[in-house]
Structure to design on (279 residues):
């Protein structure tokens, strides 16, 4: 596999990052995950825009233009012979002898771009997942897409071990914030789509944004507000969204069955619509 590591092309086996990389030592890095379907990058513009926002929120900039990043991505998918897959982009603040403060450090941000091949095209109809809830123990800026993901990693792993496809985080008042690597939505009994607003407690998902646009175009009402357990108990359908899960139906939250434990028509249709948007 050809990769782009430490600001240069190299084979994945030979790729090297310094142990003094601040991403490695402090999680002082930001990232994006972009899917590639039928030779097309999904929601590319939104992901690259958010990458810049993440860097500026933590006070550094990358001297690569978006078109330079896209050129690298295109070379990687071409040389790795990828038709369907995913792209991981990470930018760390740089490498220097370890010190918490980066003030006056001569740092050059380090760009990494990796590709992963997926054999089949993405399925439009999939089984729903069960999810569980757990308190949100992340830092106070989960709206910045940094690589500091330990609470997410632990919550997701605990879920997978116990047969759940995702962990949903709860704020201190027991409202859902978001999934460990996804945004959460319900369709309520009045056919209104509900997802948490961008109140700083969730990541501004790029897929979330696409779904909001989709809903607008199809005249589906949307409310961006907090979701409680009562809302979940009374909802018709639920699903998560992310670059890697697209739209994935949720059929159970803790012990609450959604739509009698069956994937709902709306979630299925929305997944299909999202995937077809990108054909
Ligand atoms: N995660 N919330 C969190 C905490 C996430 O990590 C993600 C995505 C999302 C959805 O964002 P988007 O629609 O832009 O993918 C929401 C990626 C897929 C990951 O970490 O692998």
């Amino acid at each position: 596999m050809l990769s782009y590591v430490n600001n240069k092309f190299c084979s994945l086996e030979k790729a090297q990052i310094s142990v003094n990389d601040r991403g490695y030592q402090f999680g002082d890095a930001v990232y994006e995950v972009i899917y590639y379907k039928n030779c097309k990058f999904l929601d590319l513009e939104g992901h690259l825009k958010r990458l810049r926002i993440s860097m500026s929120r933590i006070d550094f900039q990358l001297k690569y233009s978006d078109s330079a990043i896209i050129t690298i991505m295109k070379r990687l998918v071409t040389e790795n012979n990828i038709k369907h897959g995913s792209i991981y982009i990470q930018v760390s603040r740089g490498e220097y002898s370890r010190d918490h403060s980066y003030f006056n450090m001569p740092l050059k941000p380090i760009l990494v771009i990796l590709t992963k091949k997926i054999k089949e095209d993405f399925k439009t109809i999939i089984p729903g997942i069960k999810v569980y809830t757990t308190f949100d123990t992340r830092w106070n800026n989960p709206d910045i897409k940094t690589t500091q993901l330990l609470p997410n990693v632990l919550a997701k792993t605990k879920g997978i071990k116990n047969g759940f496809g995702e962990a949903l985080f709860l704020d201190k008042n027991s409202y859902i914030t978001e999934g460990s690597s996804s945004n959460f939505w319900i369709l309520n009994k009045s056919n209104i789509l509900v997802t948490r607003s961008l109140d700083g407690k969730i990541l501004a998902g790029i897929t979330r944004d696409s779904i909001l646009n989709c809903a607008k175009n199809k005249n589906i009402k949307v409310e961006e507000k907090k979701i409680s357990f009562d809302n979940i108990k009374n909802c018709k359908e639920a699903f998560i969204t992310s670059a890697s899960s697209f739209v994935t139906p949720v059929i159970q939250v803790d012990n609450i069955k959604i739509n009698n434990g069956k994937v709902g028509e709306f979630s299925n249709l929305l997944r299909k619509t999202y995937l077809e948007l990108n054909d």
The two ends are 26 Å apart (CA to CA).
